[in-house]
Design brief:
By secondary structure, the chain is α+β, with helices and mostly antiparallel strands. It contains two helices and nine strands; from the N terminus they run αβββββαββββ. The longest helix is centred in the N-terminal third of the chain and has 25 residues. The chain is globular, with a radius of gyration of 21 Å.
């Protein structure tokens, strides 16, 4: 085989490998595929339970909730562990942007449509840094990444009008709050709508 043919063959092999990599990365471990359908911003009042001793005094604050809906498909019909990395950016009263981060792993995600996840920000965070009980969703942006076996299989954002494109790449410019974004299991809502949301892995 001539040198020119060998060179051409090597270039073809490299091209095939190069262009195949992104396709594999999209599917992740076990051929998992994720389609993020929507991100919603909600507020929710602290639940009041029947045996509460303080009545409405113990359940009057409003929490901020991020809802994410997605569809999943995999070769094994189940995803054993699905890691979701959350970033919530909030414009606080100092003029800075607060970056709230959290990584939550969900167990035994069955193939299908309409899976739901959520994460929360406490009322005291807004009182302290917003100086207000009112939650202004127009000042909040959300970015999520989904990982299976360490491979990113999906990502999505919900960006406020005041945030620039690719804002989620500027975490180093935000005021970091790594523990302010809470898994559902660490809130008063842990037992509510249990079968509606995916099951969180606990440490």
């Amino acid at each position: 085989m001539s040198m020119r043919k060998q060179l051409f063959r090597s270039m073809v092999i490299l091209a095939v490998v190069f262009f195949a990599l992104p396709v594999y990365a999209q599917k992740g471990g076990g051929g998992a595929e994720i389609k993020i359908k929507k991100i919603d911003l909600k507020d929710q009042v602290t639940p009041q339970f029947k045996d509460s001793l303080r009545g409405s005094q113990g359940a009057k604050e409003r929490w901020f909730r991020v809802d994410v809906e997605f569809d999943s498909k995999s070769k094994k019909e189940w995803i054993g562990e699905l890691e979701v990395r959350w970033l919530v950016a909030i414009q606080i009263d100092t003029g800075k942007v607060a970056g709230l981060t959290q990584a939550i792993t969900y167990l035994d995600v069955e193939d299908g449509r309409g899976h739901n996840l959520c994460a929360y920000v406490s009322p005291k965070f807004f009182r302290r840094y917003f100086r207000s009980k009112r939650i202004e969703s127009g000042k909040i942006s959300v970015y999520v990444e989904f990982y299976v076996d360490g491979v990113r299989v999906a990502r999505e954002e919900k960006r406020s009008n005041s945030m620039p494109n690719n804002w989620y790449n500027s975490l180093d410019k935000m005021q970091s709050f790594p523990n302010a974004l809470l898994p559902k299991s660490k809130t008063p809502f842990a037992a509510m709508d249990f079968d509606y949301y995916e099951f969180e892995k606990t440490n």
